[in-house]
Amino acid sequence: MFWELLQNVNIAIALVFFSVFMLIYYITRMPSDIPPYPRPVLPIFGNLLILANRDMLMCFRKLRAQYGDIFSIYMGSKLIVVLNGYSVVKEALVKNGRVFSDRPINFLTEVLFKGSGITFTSGEKWKEHRRFAMNALQEFGFGRSSMEDSIIQEAKEMVQIFDDENGQPFQIKGVVTTCVANVVSQIIFGQRFKHTDPHFREFLSILDNATKTLSNASVAVNCFPWLQYFPGDPLKMKLIKEHVTQVVQWYKDMHEEHKSTYKEGAERDFIDLYIKEARRQEKNGQISTFTDTQLYFSIGDLISAGSDTTANTIQWTLLHFLNFPEIQQKCFQEIEQVVGRARLPTLQDKDHLPYLEATILEVLRLCPAAPLALPHAVSEDFSFHGYRISKGTTVLINLDSVLRDPSSFKEPERFFPERFLDADGHLIKPEEHIPFSIGRRVCLGENVARMEIFLFLAALIQTFEFRPVEGEPLPELKGIMGITYSPKSFLIRAMKRK
Ligand code: HEM
User: Fold this and answer.
1) What is the average per-residue pLDDT within 396-420?
2) Which residues bind heme (predicted)?
3) Which of 366, 436, 438 gets mutated to test ligand 1 (max ligand atoms within 8 A of its CB)?
């Protein structure tokens, strides 16, 4: 009995000693010249416990107040550097853009996306395909007046579907996402789809599933990269692969269809331009990166980056209108005075609708689609503000810290479009207003997005007054942080203006 007790005590003491030893070993082996980070850093979990069950953006706000504009955080075993405030962000992305413009490499980008596409690639391949996509967007997107026509066409459709609800409460997410996806679809596939088209609906639902599963897995893979080797598939990789394969199959079918009808010199859309470039490079005997796989992942990047982001901004604006009806009223009065009710607003009206423009800027400031941009990585070992950041380290660009910085935006938490107007009511856009990020990775679809947000919202505000559901509490203005920052689902009534 006595010996048994002694043995148990010994084991307990040994365990305590071992844990203390491990903790001391872990703490002392932490590098000292990296940006400051919260302590303790626990084995396996790193600093994750301070993030657990908390809003990541709130958490970063606190860490910035404690450690300054440059801090780091251990997500599991992985060190992540977080940059805050306009001057540091600009210094990294613009002055040192050559170093800070890579993307991190991980299991998702390499195995799942096959190191292809635009959003998650780096180096020469990224440069070549980003340039190509920019030119294609210019040619079939914001550089053409037909682009405006096709957005207005979608806006009409949106107005009609809202009208069909007869002022009853409904969820706008599905309609808005489909109309916005149709705009990108016209640039890429050269065609729009009916909202009732079962093939398109199926595609959007597969895309939604893929985005959700990827959003969860990307956090887990980044924090615990070793989980991918665990038996039992804890990251649900099989399911994610299935979703990605289904989406890619859709793009493959579209590509095949395009190849069979392609006519050189009469390119209809992004896919045709890609076919032309791939054939040109093949003819020249070049070793080309214009492969089929690269095409599918570029399409995927444009569709996923171009749909939810813009759709969220439209939803966020209408959600704010429920909470701030006087701002909605001012937007409407401006449209009524400048455009009237007989025709839909066009891009020519944009400069004459500064209050609406200011409202859009304010929504993008408080509810940016990607408050932490997309993860960046440094392309070489680099010393920044005296801190060592080693090659490949993930760097998060905290756009939220810039957009809510009281030194640039007075009373930053307040929804106040007037901050973007001067005494004469003219629009002013401060340099620090960067919801599309800055530097070499700046959003590739910024021009298309700005056109869409303006035209869709102007048409909706001209036609409807948006009201909350009677007798229900107002929907929350706090969002959900996934791949994009989106509002929680809410009901709204679209009352046709008399
Ligand atoms: C409200 C709408 C949008 C917002 C706020 C937005 C914002 C952003 C942000 C913050 C980034 C990350 C930049 C960085 O990593 O530093 C980004 C990247 C990107 N966006 Fe957008 N975006 C929007 C709409 C669009 C649209 C309509 C398209 C395409 C038609 C698009 C295509 C892309 C692509 C391809 C990238 C990756 C660029 C690269 O890695 O080189 N975005 N966007």
Assistant:
1) 98
2) 443
3) 436
> Which tokens belong to 356?
């609406």
CA 461, CA 333: separation in Å to the nearest integer? Answer: 10
Numbered residues of the known binding site for heme: 443
Q: Could you give the CA distance from residue 394 to residue 376 in angstroms, rounded to a whole number? A: 6
Sign of the alpha-carbon torsion through 116, 118, 120, 125? positive
Backbone angles phi, psi at 195, to 5 degrees: -60, -25
397 phi and psi angles, rounded to 5 deg: -100, 105
Whose C-alpha lies nearest to ligand 1, atom 3?
Answer: 309
CB 172 less than 6 A from any atom of ligand 1: no
What is the Cα–Cα distance from 417 to 443, expressed in whole angstroms?
23
- Rounded-to-integer distance, Cα 98 and Cα 127, Å: 12
Q: Is the pLDDT of residue 345 over 90?
A: yes
- Residue 312 is predicted with a pLDDT of 96
Instruction: Decide: 270 in ligand 1 pocket, CB within 6 A.
Output: no
DSSP state of 113: S
**Whether residue 81 has its Cβ less than 6 Å from ligand 1:** no
Ligand 1 center to 302 CA (angstroms): 8
Ligand 1 touching residue 119 (CB < 6 A): yes
- Give the sign of the dihedral formed by CA 108, CA 110, CA 116, CA 118: positive
Burial class (CB in 10 A: 0-12, 13-18, 19+), 374: middle
308 pocket-lining for ligand 1 (C-beta < 6 Å) = no
Q: Which residues are annotated as a binding site?
A: 443
As a whole number, the mean pLDDT across the chain is 91
> pLDDT (tens digit, 9 = 90+) per residue, 43-92?
888 988 888 767 889 999 999 999 999 999 998 888 999 999 999 999 99
402 Cβ inside 6 Å of ligand 1? no
Span 283-303, average pLDDT? 95
CATH says 31-496 is which class? mainly alpha
The yes-or-no verdict on residue 242 having pLDDT over 80 is yes
Quick one: pLDDT at residue 36?
96
Which has the higher per-residue pLDDT, 233 or 409? 409
Ligand 1 pocket check for 437: Cβ under 6 Å: yes
Q: What is the pLDDT of residues 253-262, one digit of tens each?
A: 999 999 999 9
Domain ranges across the chain: 1-27, 31-496
| Backbone phi, psi, residue 278, to 5° | -65, -45
At residue 11, the pLDDT reads: 62
Range with lowest mean pLDDT among 197-201, 337-341, 438-442: 197-201
